Amino acid sequence: MARSPAPTFRRTAFLFAMAGCLAGEHGARAASTPLVTDILPSGVPLPVPAPSFVRPPEDASTELLGNAWGARDWLDRKGVRINIQDVEELWGLLSGGMHPGPTYDGMTAMALTLDTGRAFGLRDGLLNISALQIRGRSLTGERLGSLNAVSGYDAGRSTRLFELWYGQGFFGNRLDIRAGTIDLDTEFLVSQNASFFLNASFGWPLSTSSNLYSGGPSWPFSAMGVRVKWTPTYPLVLMGAVTDDNPTRGPFYSDISPAQRDPSGTFFSTAGGTLFIAEVQLWLDAAERIAGKDAPALPGTWKIGALYDSGRFPDQRYDSQGGLLASPDSTGTPLYHRGNWLAYAVLDQMIWRAEKGSGKTINVFARATVNDGTRNRFSSEVQAGLTFDELLPGRPDDTIGVAWGTGFYERRAIENAYDATRLGTSLAGPLRPEHHVELTYQAAVTPYLILQPDFQYFWNIGGTSRNPDTGRPIANGIVMGLNMTTTF
């Protein structure tokens, strides 16, 4: 989910990305070095959509410690880069949900990269290692009860290794291969504009986080695997990865959270099934195609992709003996099926620019997923939204965004809910798609400090009409939050 350290970086990234576009006819280069904020799951300002990204030079002013008394320059000459980011969040459930009230969560991340070319002469090689310290409590689990977490940082408390991989570029970095423990949602199934929002569903969506073991290799988990990225010609990027499908080695259903099963992030599991994912990206300048080369550029990235998991997945209605899971006489163990799949499409498109070269823009994103209707609780999902850059007078580095998302239950999960109501084994009532709307404003206080006040509204919380424990109706939820992200 490529990301940048501060809103100021968005315009700089655009200029360098466009430079890459112009150079594309003479040999586009796929970026092999992750951006500083690749380690953050949500609430991050992003470069303008483009599959090829030319990395801007280091700017010490975008980090609180600056040049760290010369240490950064010294390390850079050795090929070493160290980045630290801290996120602090305050959330409050104002009404609705289960238990209105406040919570706090936070995360500190450290990433180290070693450029093997500078270090010992192996060109186009990169070693990457990162770690996370996650703290606080979950507003989603303890107060709201929604399917979609209010924040990407609303995760199990732990101090853990995140990613550990080696990447090697070939043919002028047109071909880029990584091997090690990989977080797929850094690059696959991601919308650049959607990642600006704080709700976790705008990063790694509900249709993967709920339908895969431990949510799949997604923040804060990674899995053993290999990723290949190839740019055969500038407008086109082809990516694929093969990883273990179960980063924490747990069963599909468990009372123990994934973070508790692997609190250190060092299981390096190769058990279970294998996850295959592939994606095609196409860069387009909509303005050039519609109004000619003299029109202000309106870049966009269009993506289609699919994944297949060879593991075993539970039926949503029938138990291991072919009876109803909702029946009082059920074995309680679902019938398991071999294999699972998901297909998706992602659109990131700039739709308006004040004038040629201007940073005043409006961008739209949309993402849709569809998957197997037998072994998944959610059969499809949709998110869409708008971001508005530099539109506030006197605030050239700020961004405003509004987005909506929902996930649709698959047929057998709906029938199981009806079975439970009919047989008296649940008070939750019929399943309904949970919807959420987010309105957010990101303010660049300094180049290294971002404040992001956030408003979210949920209805059909938890996808049910009533609290499954009390049988009482669940009121729509109103959530307010504040995210503070500091880059050191």
Automatic annotation (TrEMBL):
PANTHER family: PORIN B. One of its GO terms (molecular function) is porin activity. It comes from the Bacteria. This is Carbohydrate porin. InterPro entries: Carb-sel_porin_OprB, OprB_Porin, OprB_sf. Belongs to the OprB family. One of its GO terms (biological process) is carbohydrate transport. GO terms for cellular component: membrane.
